[in-house]
Specification:
about 290 residues, 10 strands, about 35% helix
C-alpha cells in the first residue's frame, strides 16, 4: 500500500498535520483515539472503494500536530474537524468517522455543524459513559487506558524497544500486523537513545477529563443528530478482554428500538483491532454504505 500524503491544513491558530489516504473524489474525514494518530485509519482506508479519499488529522497534542497550542478539549477538537470539513468539502458535505475519543469528537462536530457532513460513523465510542460522582478522574484514566497512557511518561533506547512495548500489549500483540506496526512507528519521536511517543501527556489527560465529565453534552448531541449515523462496537475492551469499552447496558440505552442510533457488534474484535485488524474491512464497508 502507498504511504499517505502528509498535509498541513489550516485550523484556528495554526495548522494540523493531516494524512491523506487515497485519491478519489469522495471525501471522508476521520478522528483518532486519545493517544493515537491519523495512522490508526490506515487499514480502514485501504479497504475503502477507490473513489474515496480519507483525510485523518493528527489531533492537537498528537502525531505531527503535537506542537500545536492548546487549549485542548473535545470542543476544540470538534471545531478543528469542522474547519477541516469546510476546507475539504468545497463541493459538498463530507463523510465523518471517529474511533474511541475521536468518536466523541466526531459526534460533537456533527452536532455543531450538521450541514458539513453527510454521515457519521462511531467506532467503539461516542456514547455517554457513566462515571461515579466524586471519582478521581486521573485515576479513572490510569485504570482505563493502562499501557496506552503509561508509555507517555517513558523513553525507549531504540525504535525496536518501543515496538516491543506494543507487541506486549494484550490487545495488540496476538493480532500483530503491518498496519499496527506502521501505526506504532509513526508515533515515535525524540533523539537516539531516548525515543518516545509524540503524544503529549498533558493533552491526553486534559481531553480524558473532559470526556469523562461531558456525558450530558454527548447525550444531547445524540438526541439531536440529523445526519445518518451508525455505531460499530467491539465485544472486548482496551486490554483485549471484557469488559468492552461500551458496556451492553450503555449500548442498549442508546440503540435499538428505544434508542436513536443503529448499532452493530463486530464479533472477534477488541477496542483496537476493530480498526487496526481484519475487522477494519467491515468498518470500511459499513462506512461507505452509510446514508444510502
Amino acid at each position: 500500500m502507498n504511504e499517505p500524503a502528509e498535509l498541513d491544513l489550516p485550523v484556528e491558530g495554526g495548522t494540523l498535520r493531516v494524512l491523506r489516504f487515497g485519491r478519489g473524489p469522495r471525501i471522508a474525514l476521520a478522528a483518532h483515539g486519545i493517544t493515537g494518530s491519523g495512522m490508526s485509519f490506515r487499514a480502514m482506508a485501504r479497504r475503502l472503494p477507490g473513489e474515496w479519499s480519507l483525510f485523518a488529522p493528527d489531533l492537537r497534542g498528537r502525531g505531527g500536530s503535537a506542537g500545536n497550542p492548546g487549549p485542548y478539549g473535545l470542543d476544540r477538537h470538534a471545531l478543528d474537524l469542522c474547519r477541516l470539513a469546510e476546507h475539504l468539502g468545497a463541493a459538498g458535505p463530507v463523510a465523518l468517522a471517529g474511533h474511541s475519543m475521536g468518536a466523541y469528537i466526531a459526534l460533537r462536530a456533527a452536532a455543531r455543524g450538521p450541514e458539513l457532513f453527510d454521515r457519521l460513523l462511531l467506532v467503539d465510542g461516542g456514547l455517554p459513559l457513566p462515571v461515579p460522582p466524586g471519582a478521581d478522574l486521573d485515576a479513572v484514566l490510569d485504570d482505563t487506558l493502562g499501557p496506552a497512557l503509561a508509555r507517555l511518561g517513558r523513553t525507549f533506547g531504540t525504535d525496536g524497544a518501543y515496538v516491543d512495548f506494543f507487541r506486549a500489549h494484550p490487545a495488540l500483540g496476538p493480532h500483530w500486523n503491518a498496519d499496527i506496526e506502521r501505526y506504532v512507528r509513526y508515533d515515535l519521536t525524540g533523539p537516539r537513545g531516548a525515543r518516545r511517543s509524540k503524544a503529549r501527556e498533558e493533552a491526553v489527560r486534559h481531553d480524558g477529563r473532559d470526556l469523562l465529565t461531558s456525558a450530558d453534552l454527548f447525550a444531547a448531541d445524540l438526541t439531536r443528530l440529523s445526519v445518518p449515523a451508525l455505531l460499530l462496537h467491539a465485544p472486548l475492551g482496551m486490554l483485549g478482554q471484557e469488559p468492552p469499552m461500551l458496556r451492553a447496558s450503555v449500548v442498549e440505552r442508546w440503540t435499538g428500538r428505544s434508542g436513536c442510533l443503529p448499532a452493530e457488534l463486530i464479533e472477534g474484535s477488541n477496542h483496537y483491532t476493530i480498526l487496526l485488524g481484519a475487522p477494519a474491512g467491515t468498518v470500511a464497508e459499513r462506512f461507505a454504505a452509510l446514508g444510502g
